[in-house]
Write a structure and sequence with these properties.
65 residues, alpha+beta, three-stranded antiparallel β-sheet
Length: 65
């Protein structure tokens, strides 16, 4: 999927740096405001968390004020 604002293509499973980049925020903000939420879906590859763009966008849409 291409984030049109960033103009960058992303793999299907994103690591935290890629997820933060997709959202246009720094990884620390991603950790604090999104990743720390228990309802945020993640996929484990061994001991590493991965995230899909669909799960990221759904989370943002569901938690928008």
């Amino acid at each position: 999927m291409i984030n049109k604002e960033v103009g960058k293509e992303y793999p299907y499973l994103l690591n935290r740096k890629q997820a933060a980049s997709f959202l246009g925020i720094d990884p620390a903000s991603f950790d604090k405001h999104i990743r720390s939420n228990a309802s945020f879906k993640r996929f484990m590859v061994g001991s590493h968390e991965r995230y899909t763009i669909k799960c990221i966008t759904e989370f943002i849409e569901d938690h928008a004020s």
